[in-house]
Amino acid sequence: MAAKTDVTDRLKDATSLPLIVAPLFLNSVPELVLASVKEGIVGSIPAFGQYTTQGYDEWLTEIDSGIAQMKSANPAAKIAPYAANLIFNKNPRIDADLDVVIKHRVPIVMASAEASREQIEKIHAYGGIVLHDVANLDEAKRAIDAGADGLIAITAGGGGQGSTMNPFVFVNELRRIFDGPIALAGGLATGRDIAAAESIGADFAIMGTRFLATKESRADPAYKQMIVDSNASDIIYTSAFTAQPANFLKDSMTKEGFDAEKIRKDGTAAPRIVPPPGEKSKAWKHVWAAGQTVSHINDIPSVAELATRLKREYAAAKREIAVKLGLVPAHQAKPKPPKFG
Known about the structure:
The protein is 42% helix and 14% strand. By secondary structure, it is an alpha/beta fold. The chain has a domain of 214 residues: Aldolase class I (TIM Barrel, Alpha-Beta Barrel). It has an eight-stranded parallel beta sheet with strand order 1-9-8-6-5-4-3-2. Strands 7-11-10 form a three-stranded antiparallel beta sheet. Helix 2 packs parallel to helix 3 and helix 3 runs parallel beside helix 4. The radius of gyration is 19 Å and the shape is globular. The chain starts with a helix and ends in a 17-residue tail after the last helix.
């Protein structure tokens, strides 16, 4: 097994921007993944985006075929690798889903809910890379012990299930015990945010909410527009709708008849709201997850348009940081970068 720092270099070399698109549960589709990798950004596809393993197999086939066509049409282009997101613990589908991922030799596996050493070794056997979700230091230690190649640091402010960890604190904690790739998730939506993630010790940024509001995501048009229309204060962190506390749009609760302010007040102590009959485990289909980055999202672009913007912002932010740190004389700096968003 290669050194963890070698894994970081491999991933950096394979991408045009140190960015991973988060698995967006019911809203990620092959179209979104293919649009992302075409721009040199890691796209991800969650197994639970399909209701059956067979459906997931078909999705991976579609993605593999699309990437092959891209490479054939433009051999010189930098097509990023893609990732499969698997939930490992208490998942009756995991053996079948993992077999499908192995069959397709998916380059990156984003592991959730504590993958075992045996499961990770199966991915390593075909050359795959495992990036493991962690929300605290104990989870990180278990992921490292199981053989994960990289860590996804789940911090405050992200859409869906997250944590209350401060990103500065958490990345510093992780860096004391791990020298491999760290991807920072939670509250990131601009190219400046990507540069900021790197500046505190992460290697990659993960964005979810920003890519929900793109033309290629499968999110309901009203969902996308609510993201555009919302501010950070419209996000409520609660355990009312999922097994673990998560961030949701206040207005999506209200439209379903829930008392959003009571849910906000109850927070992580809120009792679980049972989905309507016939809608078991589909609460997010009606009450929409989103992160605090809604404050930075003002449009619904294509992935190509968004990627161009993020790359421009990222380059401008690096120049600005270099000037502020005195690494580049101010007179050599380019004009002030455009507004973000």
